[in-house]
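Shift notes (night). Ran Glycoside hydrolase family 5 domain-containing protein while the centrifuge was going.
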Amino acid sequence: MPTLDRVLLAPTVCCRTDAVLKPGSQTRAFAAAVLAIQEGQYLAALEHSAVTEALQSSVGKPGSIKEYVMACLNASHEAREATASLHLVAAAAAFQLFLQCNITGPYLTAAEETRLAVWFQDAAPAGGSGTAGHLSPAIQSSTSSSCNGTAPGLDSGEPDGSCSVLQQHPSWAWWALRVEVTRQRMLQGRSATLQRLLRSLSGQVLDQYAGGQTPSGLQGRSRLAAAALLECALAELEYGAVRPAEELLTRANQAAGISISLTGAMGKRTVHQMDPKAQLVVTTAEHSHIANGHTNGHADGASSLSSHGSKMESSEGPEEDGDDAAWLDRCSLGEGSDGSTGPAGSSLMGVEDESDVLAAPQLTDAAGAPLQQSLASLEQALLLGWAAHVRRSRAKDELLGWQTAPYAEAVLAQQQSRAILRAAARLQQARHERRSNRTRMRALVALQQLAEAPACPQPPTHTRLRCCMLVAYPLQAALAKEMGEEFVSNGLVGQAMELFEKQELWDNLILCCQLLGKKPQAISLIHRELQSRPDDARLWCALGDLELQDDHYRMAWERSGCRSARAQRSLARAADIRKDWPKAVEHWEAALRISPLHPAGWFALGFGALKLKDFTRAVRAYTRCAQLEPENGDAWNNLAAVHLQGERWLEAYSALGEAIKLKRGSWQTWSNYALAALRTNHPHQACRGVLQVLELSKGAQIELEILTSLVAGVVAWHSQHGAHDVGATSVDASQAGLERSIEEALRAASTSATSPSTSFWAVRARFHGALGQPVSNVPFPPTANTITAGAMGPNAAQLDTSSYAPGYAPTDSNTLPKWSGFINVVNGTQLADQQCKRFPVLGPNTWELLEEAAGVISPPPGLPSNTDSVEYTFSRAAQNYQTTVRFRAHGVSPSYQLQVSPGNYTASAWRAIDYIIARAGQYGIKLIYVVADNWQQADSVINYVEWGTNGTSNNTDLFFSDSRVMQIYQNHLNYTLNRVNTITGIQYKNDPTIFAWDLLNEPRCNCHPTTLANPAALPASCQPNCTNSIATWGGSMAHFARQIDPNHQVVIGNEGFWGQNSVDKQYNPSPSNNWASYTGQNFTDQNSFANTTVAAFHYWPDLWGDNTTTFATQWFTSHINAATYLNKPLILEEMGKQYNISTCNNDACRTSLRVPFYQAAYQSFNTSYYGGGPMQGIMFWRLVNGPIQDNGDGLGVAYTDALFTGTILPNSRSALQYATSKNAANCTPTAYAPAPAVSTTSSSRNL
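Came back to this:
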C-alpha cells in the first residue's frame, strides 16, 4: 500500500503504522498538509497552497469521472501521481472537516467559518434532504475531490485503467465509500442509486483490504481488514440488509481474532440490590489465526482480557493507547482541564437523574469479585456493530432494548475507549432506558448531553474522529430531531418546537402545534417560509398536512419537478383515508418509482392491492417490504395471508415462520401458522401453533379444525400400526412426540376458559380411542351428553346423543350468515341475496334424503336408529361453512315414488319434502331442488315416457320432443311450484330456502354411449339425433318455470359435454374417441336460453374414463370460459372421485387418491371466484351421514374425512368469508317481504 494511504487511513481505523512520508519531489508538496490532517487541522490542510493549486488546475475539481481520467492521461506520469496524491489529501481533509462540523465537533470558530467561506467561495452549500438541514460546504469539497464520491477508475468509460487513481491510491474506494454512506445518512429515505454505488464501492474495498492479498505496511493488518468489513456491514445495515451485514460482521470477528457471544453472568442491577442475579452480558474470546508472522495484538494499544481474564501483551506505544474513559465523560459534560463547565454541563430545567437503576450491571465472579473485560477500540466498535445488527433484525418490542443493552454496557464499562465509541454506546443506552419510567429522565439528560457535546472544546478534534466511521453515529441534525421527539414524549413540547423550527423539521413542528392547539400559528409559519422558498416541496407537503388539502401536495409535486416522493406519499395516504384504493395504489406506485427503498410505502401498496383483490401486486409489494425491512412482522404476516388466500401453503408457511418470530403475541398469526403447517405436512409445528393460540387467547380460541385433522392423522397411523400408550418408547420417536403434543393441546383446550363444544369432546374421544384407551377416561363435561334441536313446531324434541359415535353428534353451532330473501343473479355472473350479500354455492349432494325424511329407510350405518337424518344433514352443513344442499325431490328407489302415475302422488313423500325444506330454512341452508332424473330411478325420464305413450314406447328421446310426455312433466312442475308447505305454510315458489330448480339431472339421448371405445360403430338407429331437442326442451321448461316463479334460479343438470358440431368438443373426456359428443348434450347451446339463469356442469373422472388432473384442469377452465361467454353464473354441481373400497380402505389412501382432483377443482374455482369470474360454487358428491365411510360405491365423503377437513372445509370457509366481506358491486338492495302463510290441514310434521 502506498505510504500516503497508510498515513491517512490508519488513524481512522485505530491501526498503528510505522510508515513515514519521506522527502521527495512527490511528497514535498503535500507533506505539510498531511501533517495538518494528523493534528486535526483539516481546514489548514485544505488551505495549503499545493492543495489549492491542484484543485484549481484543469486536473482538479473535475465535472465528471471521465473528465478527470482524461486529464490524468494528458499529464506526465510524475504529474499524474502528484495530482492524484493531492486529491487524496484534499478529499481526506474535506471529508473529516465535514465530520467535525456535523457529527463530532468541536464547532468551527467564527474566524474559521470565514476562512472556510473564502476557500470555498465558488461552491454553494448543498441543500439538505432531511434531518441534515443545510450541509457544511466541506462535504461538497469532499465529494468533488473524490470525483462525486466514486473512486476514479470505476467508470466503465475509462479508456485505460493503467492511469487510474485507484491503482495509485487503493484507499480512494474506502474514502469514497465513507462519503456515500454519510450521504445516505443525510437523506430521509433510502436511495436505490446510492445503494448500488455503495455495493460497488464495498466490493472494491473488500477486494483491496479483506481479500486474499491484504496490503502490507500496517501492523495488525487483519484488524485493518476487520475495520473494512465492519464499515461495509454498516453500509448494508443502512438498507436493512441484515443477512449480508451478518456475514460481513462474522468475517470482521474472524479478521480481528475474536468471537462475540451473549451469555449470562451474576451481577447487581440496582443500588439497593443485595444479592446478585443473573444478567445478560456480552463476552469476547480471542483466538490466534494471523499468519505470516503477524500477531493479533491490539493495534491501537488498548490491552484486553481474554475470556479467562489474562492480560495480553501489546506492542503499541503509549501515544496510541485509547483515551481515558473518565476523562472522555468529563469532556462530554463540558468540563475543561481547568474544571470549567461548557455548554453540555447544563441540564434541563427541573430534570434530574435520581434513578436507582445502575447504568450497567455490576458483574461478579463465582467468588463475588468484580468481573470486567478489557476491549480494544476495534473490538468495542465490533460490539456496537453487532448491536446495530440486532436492532435491525429483531422485532420492535420490549425485548429489543434488553437484547442490545449488553453491547453498550460492555463498551461503557471500559477504562479506555474512543470518544465516538463512548458516545455511540451512551446513545444506545439512552434509547433503551427511555422505555422505562425508572430511567427515562436519565435517558433524556444523556440525549441532551450528547447533542450538546460537539460544542465542548475537549477532547481535541483528531481524538474525536478516531473510529468515527466504525459506528453508525447520527449527524447532529438527526440527533437533535431525536432529542426533540423525546422532549415531546416527556411533555416538553415548547422546547421541542424551538428545536424543530431551528432544524426546519416541519412535520415534527406541525405535530407539536397540534398538541398545543396552535395549528393557526403553524400555518402562518409555513406561509411565511413559502414566501422566501416557494419551490420547497417539504413546505407545501407540511401545509397540506395542516390544511388537509390535496392541492398542496400536488403543488409540492409540481414545484419539485415531479421528483418529490413525499408529495406522492401524502396523496396516497389521503386516498387511503378516503378508501379510494385505485388512486391510493396509483400514488404509492408513483412514490415508489422515485424512492423504491421505502418499506412503509411497499406495505401500504400491498394493503391497497389487497383491497382491490389484486393478489399478485399484493404479493410483490409485501415481499419487497419484507426484503427491505426483515424485522417487520406485519409485512411477513400479510404476505402469508395473501399466500393463504391463494392456497400457496409452502410460501405461506415460510412467511409465517418469519412472522411468528416478530409477532409473538398475536394469536391470529399463530393460528395461520398452524393451518399452514398442517397443509405442508408439519404436524409438530401445527401443534405448537395450536398451543400458542390457546395460551395467547387465554383459551378463547380452540383450533378445532386443525385438531380434528391432526387426530385424523393419528387415527390413520394407528389403523396400520395398532394402538399404544402416548409416548410409548417402542413407537417411532417422531410419531410418539407428535402424539404427546396433540395430547397436550387437547388437554389445554379441555381446560380453556371457553367451554369446548361437543365436537371437541368427540375429537378427543376419537384420539384416545385410536390409542386403545377407554373413552371413559376422557373427562367429558356434565352437559356434553345432550343437545337441544332447534324448535320446529309442537313435535320438536330433545335429541339424545349419548349413543352417537365419536364426532358425529349434531351441533347447534352455525357458521352461516343470515341470508336476506332470494338469491339473485347480479352483474351477469355473480350471485347475491336481496341485500346484495354475495352467495357462494358450497355444499354436498345427498342421495336418499327423501327416503330418510319419510322414515322408509333407516339412518346410515353407524348412526343410532332414532337419528333424524335431515336435521343431522343440515346442522352439520351449517357447522362446516356449507351454504347449499342439492337433493333429489323424487324417489331414488323405484319402490318409493313421489309420483306413482300422472298427478297421483305419495302423500308421505310430499310431507317429507316439506320437512326437508323447513329444516333447511331453520339452519340457513339453501336448496337445489332436483325435479326429475334421467337415470332409471323413481320419477325418472322412462316413467314419463311410459305414461305419455301409454306404455307403448321406452325411447327416452321422446321425453324431450313428445308433447304428451312434456305435458305430464309440465303439470308436475306446475304442482311443485305452487305447492304449499304443510309445516311452514309457504308456497314453494315463495320460499327463499330454495335457491334453484334443477329441471332434470344429467339429460342424455337414447342409445347414448358411456365410455365406448368406438361410439361411431353404434347402429344408425341408435345414433343420437336429439341434441337440439334437449336444448329446446330446457329452454321451454325454464321459460314455463320462470313465468310461474320469477324468484328462483333455474338450472339444467347437464354433465357439461359438447356435441359433435361444437368447436369445444376437444375438451370432452377421452377426446381420442370423443364418446361424450354422442350423448346429445351441448353445454353452450343448452345454457344459452335467457330463463336458464345459472349454468351447471358435473365432473366424474372415473366414470368417464379420463382420470388425470390435466383433464380436470382443462375441463374446469373450458367451462369457465364458456360461462364467461354466456355471461352467466357457473356451478360445478356434482363432483366425485372414486376409490376401491376393498384395497383403499383407510383415510390416508382415500386422501392421497382424491385430494389432487379436488385441489384442481378448488384452484380453478378460487382463481375464477376471487378474480371476478363466473364460477360461483362447487358441490361434492356425496355426503355420507355417519362414521361408515360408504355404502359400496367408493364415492362418499364424510365430514370427518381428511379430504373434507383438509381441502373442502378450508376452501369453503375462505370463499364464504370473502363473499360476505363486502356487498356485490352494482347491486341495489331490496327489502324481502315474506309471503303470507297459507292455511293447511297440518302445521307440524306428521310423517
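The first helix runs from residue 3 to 9. The mean pLDDT is 77.
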